[in-house]
C-alpha cells in the first residue's frame, strides 16, 4: 500500500489570467499536482467554486480560502490514506464537505486534490494515466470537437450561439483528425483575412470575428470546409454549443437572432439550420430547467443528430437520470469541476454508457496546462473531446497528449464510433 504523506496547495492562474487552485499530493517517493479549471458560462446546478470575494484581493477572484482548506482541513484527513483507493479518498472529501453543491470545501478545492491523487496512483503503478480509469484494454480515441468560431459569453462579438465547432467525422486516426481540423481552421483564417474580418480569438481559441448572424458564421465555416477539399456533413461536420441559458427569457429564446421567439419557432429554426448546414450535434439547445422543450426537440429532431446536455446535467448523476427518463437528449457533456471529484465523474460516465449515451469530455473556458481530461477521454472510451481550437497552448496541450497516447498504443490505436 502506498500512503499519502503530504497534501499541499497553492494559488496559480488559469488561461484567462484568473486565480485558480493547484493541489500537490505526495507519497514516500513521488508527487503529482493538478490544476482545477473554471467556467464562464456555468449552470446554476454546478458544484460551488470557492473564491474569496474580497474586492481588495485580486478583485474578489483570489482562491486563498480554497488553498487554506486543502492545506489544513483536507490534508489532515488524507494523510496515511491509500493513494490507490480513489473512491475512499473522494468519499472522505464528500463526507468532509457534507453539502449538495460542495459549498463548504468548494469543488475547486476537492477536484484539484482528487485529480492529483489519480495521477499519483498511476505514477506509483508506473502506468500511463489513461490506463488508470475505467478501460483496461481495447482503448478507443475520441473525435475532437474543435472550436472554430466563438460567440456568446466567450467572445466580444454579437453572435448568439456560443460555439461553432467542427468534427472530422471521416478521420481514421487522431493524427488525421487533427490534420483535417488544421486545414479547415487555416482556410477559415484566409477567408476572414480576405473579407477584412478579425482573426483574433476568443477564450477557447476559436476566431471571434465581428459578425452578428449565426447564418453568416455557418456560411463561412462551410466555405472553409469546401476549400479544404472536404464534404460538409460527411468528412467534416459542424457542431454547435448554443448555451441557451444565456438566451432565455419569459419562456422564449433569442437563439437565432436578438429577437425572442417561442419554443415552437426556435425548434423550426433549428430544423432549418440542421438541414441547410448539415449540423450533426447541438449542445444545450434549451435552458437547464426547460425539460419539456428538450423533450419536444428530441422527439422532433432527426435521429442522427447528437443532442448534448451540459448545463442540463452538470455532470450530475441524479440530473442525468431525470434526463434519461424524460428523453431529453442522447448525449452528455462531462466536466469534472461541475461535480467536484473523479469518482463522481466516472459514475456519471458509466451510467451514461449503460443507457447508450455518447459522452463528450470537455474543458472549461478558464483552462490550464493540465492535460488530465485528455487521458480521461481515452481511459473511459468517450466518443468525443472538446478542448477548444487548435490555438492557445492550454487547448492544444490536450490534443498533443492524445497524439502521444495514440503513439503509445501503436497498432492497437483505434478511433471511437460516432
Distance between the termini: 40 Å
**Biggest β-sheet: count, sense, barrel?**
9 strands, mixed
**Strands, count:** 16
Contiguous low-pLDDT stretches (5 residues minimum) are none
Count of helical regions: 12
Helices and strands, in order, run as EEEHHHEEEEHHEEEHEHEHEHHEHEHE
Question: Which structural class do you get from the secondary structure elements?
Answer: alpha/beta
> Helix fraction?
25-40%
Q: What is the residue-mean pLDDT, rounded to a whole number?
A: 95
Question: Based on the structure, what is the oligomeric state of the protein chains?
Answer: single chain
The 3D shape can be described as globular
Strand content: 15-25%
Order of strands across the main sheet: 5-15-14-13-12-11-8-7-6
- What radius of gyration results from the CA coordinates? 21 Å
What keyword list fits this structure?
single chain; 418 residues; alpha/beta; nine-stranded mixed beta sheet; three-stranded antiparallel beta sheet; globular
Description of the molecule:
By secondary structure, this protein is of the alpha/beta class. It is 38% helix and 16% strand. The chain contains 12 helices and 16 strands. It has a 9-stranded mixed β-sheet. A hairpin with a 5-residue loop joins β1 and β2. α2 (86-97) packs antiparallel against α3, α4 crosses α5 and α11 (372-379) runs parallel beside α12. It is globular and about 60 Å long. The model has no long low-confidence stretch (mean pLDDT 95).
Amino acid at each position: 500500500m502506498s500512503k499519502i504523506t503530504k497534501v499541499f496547495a497553492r494559488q496559480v492562474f488559469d488561461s484567462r489570467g484568473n486565480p485558480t487552485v493547484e493541489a500537490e499530493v505526495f507519497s514516500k517517493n513521488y508527487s503529482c499536482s493538478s490544476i482545477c479549471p473554471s467556467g464562464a458560462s456555468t449552470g446554476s446546478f454546478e458544484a460551488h467554486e470557492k473564491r474569496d470575494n474580497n474586492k481588495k484581493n485580486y478583485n474578489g477572484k483570489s482562491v486563498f480560502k480554497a488553498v487554506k482548506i486543502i492545506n489544513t482541513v483536507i490534508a489532515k484527513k488524507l494523510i496515511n490514506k491509500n493513494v490507490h483507493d480513489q473512491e475512499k479518498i473522494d468519499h472522505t472529501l464528500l463526507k468532509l464537505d457534507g453539502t449538495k453543491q460542495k459549498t463548504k470545501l468548494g469543488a475547486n478545492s476537492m477536484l484539484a486534490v482528487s485529480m492529483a491523487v489519480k495521477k499519483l496512483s498511476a505514477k506509483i503503478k508506473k502506468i500511463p494515466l489513461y490506463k488508470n480509469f475505467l478501460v483496461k484494454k481495447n482503448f478507443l480515441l475520441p473525435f475532437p470537437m474543435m472550436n472554430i468560431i466563438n460567440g456568446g459569453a466567450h467572445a466580444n462579438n454579437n453572435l448568439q450561439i456560443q460555439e461553432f465547432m467542427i468534427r472530422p467525422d471521416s478521420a481514421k486516426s487522431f493524427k488525421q483528425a487533427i490534420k483535417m481540423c488544421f486545414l479547415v481552421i487555416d482556410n477559415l483564417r484566409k477567408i476572414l483575412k480576405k473579407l477584412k474580418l478579425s482573426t483574433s480569438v476568443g477564450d477557447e481559441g476559436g476566431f471571434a470575428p465581428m459578425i452578428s448572424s449565426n447564418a453568416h458564421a455557418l456560411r463561412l465555416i462551410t466555405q472553409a470546409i469546401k476549400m479544404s477539399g472536404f464534404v460538409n456533413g460527411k468528412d467534416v461536420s459542424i457542431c454547435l454549443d448554443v448555451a441557451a441559458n444565456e438566451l432565455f427569457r419569459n419562456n422564449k429564446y433569442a437563439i437565432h437572432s436578438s429577437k425572442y421567439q417561442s419554443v415552437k419557432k426556435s425548434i423550426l429554426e433549428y430544423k432549418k439550420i440542421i438541414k441547410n448546414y448539415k449540423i450533426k450535434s447541438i449542445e444545450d439547445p434549451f435552458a437547464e430547467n426547460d425539460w419539456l422543450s428538450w423533450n419536444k426537440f428530441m422527439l422532433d429532431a432527426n435521429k442522427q443528430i447528437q443532442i448534448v446536455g451540459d448545463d442540463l446535467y452538470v455532470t450530475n448523476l441524479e440530473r442525468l437520470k431525470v434526463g434519461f427518463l424524460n428523453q431529453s437528449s442522447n448525449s452528455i457533456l462531462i466536466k469534472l469541476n461541475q461535480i467536484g471529484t473523479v469518482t463522481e465523474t466516472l459514475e456519471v460516465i458509466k451510467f451514461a454508457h449503460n443507457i447508450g449515451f455518447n459522452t463528450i469530455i470537455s474543458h472549461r473556458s478558464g483552462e490550464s496546462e493540465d492535460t488530465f481530461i485528455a487521458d480521461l477521454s481515452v481511459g473511459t472510451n468517450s466518443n468525443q473531446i472538446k478542448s477548444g481550437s487548435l490555438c492557445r497552448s492550454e487547448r492544444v496541450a490536450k490534443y498533443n497528449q492524445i497524439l502521444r497516447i495514440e503513439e503509445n498504443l501503436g497498432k492497437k490505436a483505434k478511433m471511437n464510433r460516432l
